[in-house]
Amino acid sequence: MSLRERGYAGRITLLGAEGRAPYDRPPLSKKVLTEGIVPALKADFGALDVEFRPETEAVSLDVSSRVVMTVNGTKTNHEKYPFDGLVIATGATPVALPGPGRQRFLRTYDDALALRGLLRPGLRLAVAGAGWIGAELATAAAAAGAEVTVVEAGPTPLAAVFGNQIGSLFAPWYAEAGVSLRTDVRVASVEAGGLALVGGGWLPADEVVTAVGVRPAVGWLAGSGLLLDNGVAVDEGLRASLPGVAEPPGIFAVGDCASFPSGLFGTRMRVEHWDTAVHAPGVVAANILGGSEVYDPVPYFWSEQFGRMVQYVGRHGPDDRLLWRGDPAEPRWTACWLADGGRLTALLTVGRPRDMAQARKLIAARAAPDPARLADPGIPVKNALA
Ligand SMILES: Cc1cc2nc3c(=O)[nH]c(=O)nc-3n(C[C@H](O)[C@H](O)[C@H](O)COP(=O)(O)OP(=O)(O)OC[C@H]3O[C@@H](n4cnc5c(N)ncnc54)[C@H](O)[C@@H]3O)c2cc1C
């Protein structure tokens, strides 16, 4: 779509492993589960003159002959797709747990439909992982009357991302919703009828959903020679590279499968957020058409869980200072992170979207707000500068 918007008139072929046209994933763990809504189709390929090939999985890339090899859904038909330019947008794949039992995931529309069909009062549902997807699924499943147990390896939900202090604020939401949260519990294996836990425990379950994170879906690029580092390692213009080859190969990567150098945060990052999947393709399209645009966003993510809107903007490092904006004991709260030198690097908020929107601008401007003013929820974030 971005290419056509910028006037590209050449041929575009879109290869997709799924049997469906592209759709938005955020509703899958929200209204698709609770209300069965169909996520919006992202584009009208006929009107855009895009040749869309569903159930066509890229299995290898030959950079020197500029060909993508594919296999169809039934693995019976292999095809070759020659290209002048290639955009890799293969997203991410959920991590599976060991064990022979059936584990479900929540990544695709079909996954969400299957889960929606299962949710019923009394269903004993075990969810492995109290991350974003686990929390949203638990919200929907509990609302449907299921008996939900979430097992989490860390000491609190999202401890690895935000630390224990913030993570402990998420924990009571589970109990309020009637969800049993068991922290510091590791799954040893998924078995028929439940989860075997490290240390010998057993959690009986009718269904198990594994929500312990995703990995960039770049296995098919092994052997291509493309530089891979936590996904396809692209430059600031989202161009992939071949180590030792000076001339850029005309191959780009974007979305969950790509790691890019962030000028703003001074680190390479891979962002598994909808906002990146929506905005980065414009940069790719501009650069395919000869531009030199740079992708350097303030990452943004939201989650709707247990009746709350949680929003995180920016990226904080392990040494950044946590600053509370107001009282975290209130139902709506905001946490900020300041780097050495006082620059605002990230903000997490529950129920205060204005804080998020204003912080995003300060983070983009590399601003160093006055900590006392930032800590005062009576002062708008945008007015917190010294
Ligand atoms: C349930 C769920 C809820 C989410 N909620 C939120 C939210 O609330 N807020 C937020 O910011 N983000 C959310 N996200 C994250 C967001 O949806 C992703 O960041 C976004 O979908 C990434 O887009 P993408 O195009 O990079 O990858 P994907 O959306 O994963 O698309 C990649 C596509 O490539 C296909 N593919 C993979 N390998 C191949 C291959 N070899 N050949 C051909 N095709 C292939 C896949 O089948 C898939 O269709 C959520 C994600 C999920 C799963």
Account of the protein in words:
The protein has 386 residues and is α/β, with parallel strands linked by helices. It has 3 domains: 2-19 and 54-92 and 214-288, FAD/NAD(P)-binding domain (3-Layer(bba) Sandwich), CATH 3.50.50.60; 96-210, FAD/NAD(P)-binding domain; 307-383, Enolase-like, domain 1 (2-Layer Sandwich), CATH 3.30.390. The chain is built from 9 helices and 24 strands. The chain has helices at 2-5, 31-35, 45-48, 109-118, 132-143, 159-176, 274-288, 353-364, 371-374; strands at residues 12-15, 50-53, 56-62, 67-72, 78-82, 86-88, 92-94, 124-128, 147-151, 180-182, 187-191, 194-197, 202-204, 207-210, 214-216, 232-233, 251-253, 258-262, 267-269, 300-305, 308-314, 321-325, 333-338, 344-350. The strands form 8 sheets. A 5-stranded antiparallel β-sheet has the order 20-21-24-23-22. A 4-stranded parallel β-sheet has the order 10-9-8-14. Flavin-adenine dinucleotide (FAD) is lined by residues 15-18, 25-26, 28-29, 57-58, 89-92, 106-107, 133, 217, 220, 255-257, 272-275, 277, 301-303.
